[in-house]
Amino acid sequence: MTITSTSSLPETTLKQGLLMSLAPVGRFLSELWRDKAGFAGFAFLVLLVLVALFAPLIAPHDPAAQSVMARLKPPIWMDGSAPGHLLGTDMLGRDIFSRLLYGARSSLLVSVSVVALAGSFGVMAGLIAGYKGGLTDALIMRIVDVQVAFPGLLLTLLLVAVIGPSTTTIIVVLAFSNWMIYTRVVRGIVMSLRQTPFIEAAEVVGCKSSRIIIKHILPNLIAPLLTLGILEFTNIILAEAALSFLGLGVQPPATSWGLDVAGGKNYMMIAWWPITFPGLAIAMTVLSINLFANWLRVSTEPAEREKRYARGRAAKMRRTKA
């Protein structure tokens, strides 16, 4: 009579559970790898998030520490550089590399907070307007039309100047200036979904409005809202950089990329590095987000996926014939 050991069963079950949990991640990365531009953008964004999270551990210097003796030192690969300053120093002798790392934290904090606040309020308003219709829809959309008609940048500058510049002020003001985009998109999708048979069937059988919205409508909004949120992320990064450049954004001793560009603009003719590296960081971040958002839009829309699949099949057939 043989006795089967069960000591390895929990370990086997744990491995199987781990593999099953990692399977969606593997499929996501495998599909993303087919679009090299989208994969490069996603990889840069992941690196940016990690750098922002671990900036205190990575940064070689305090980003606010000044040294008059080390001011405007060039990057380490140029003559006259200062030891320990990889990308050189700015006009106050602060380490540019350290300020880039901490500036990423400011940009990501503002952008994520604004997208979360504006998206939450805008989606809720769009759901109510699109599903309720009638007077409720008319009232919400008239408010949207009035705010859209007012220049967004002017409204933002006015509110920040009145309230006073700070990181919290930027988040609140930018969220207030951008919620209408989500409302319009969500309202349009909800109004088209209300005409579909599965929504009408749910209403006929007596489902509550809250259940229909949560169980049937919201899942259909995930794909377009993901793409919209990522694209709006780029606009918020640029808006934060512009406000900081004008002195109405992040305030010293905190740092941001826009603030560094503003500080280095008066020295760009004698020292290009204080303004170049923050500008490159902004440009590369925006480009990476757009590349990833383009892949996400294609991968979440069935029509676009069919087009990409057809192009891939046609290219494969041409190579086979050749």
Key features of this structure:
single chain; 322 residues; mainly alpha; MetI-like fold; 73% helix; disordered N terminus
N-to-C terminal Cα separation, in Å?
Answer: 63 Å
**Strand pairing plus helix content: what structural class?**
mainly alpha
The coarse overall form would be globular
Q: Regions with pLDDT < 50 over 5+ consecutive residues? A: 1-7
Strand content: under 5%
Number of helices: 13
Helix content: over 70%
Please compute the radius of gyration using only Cα atoms. 25 Å
From the 3D structure, determine the CATH topology: MetI-like fold
Q: Quick check: average pLDDT?
A: 83
What count of structural domains? 1
Based on the structure given, which CATH architecture is correct?
Answer: Orthogonal Bundle
> Element order, helices and strands?
HHHHHHHHHHHHH
The major pleated sheet works out as: none
The CATH class is Mainly Alpha
Identify the CATH homologous superfamily: MetI-like
What is the secondary structure topology, with strand pairs?
Elements (H helix, E strand, L loop, with lengths): L8 H25 L2 H18 L1 H4 L37 H37 L1 H16 L2 H12 L3 H27 L3 H8 L4 H9 L4 H24 L11 H8 L8 H28 L1 H20 L1
Helix pairs in contact: 2-4, 2-12, 4-5, 4-7, 4-10, 4-12, 5-7, 6-7, 7-10, 8-9, 10-11, 10-12, 11-12, 12-13
What does this 3D model show about the protein?
The structure is a single chain. The chain has 322 residues and is an all-alpha fold. The protein has a single domain, classed as MetI-like fold. 73% of the residues lie in helices and 0% in strands. The protein is built from 13 helices and no strands. It has helices at residues 9-33, 36-53, 55-58, 96-132, 134-149, 152-163, 167-193, 197-204, 209-217, 222-245, 257-264, 273-300, 302-321.
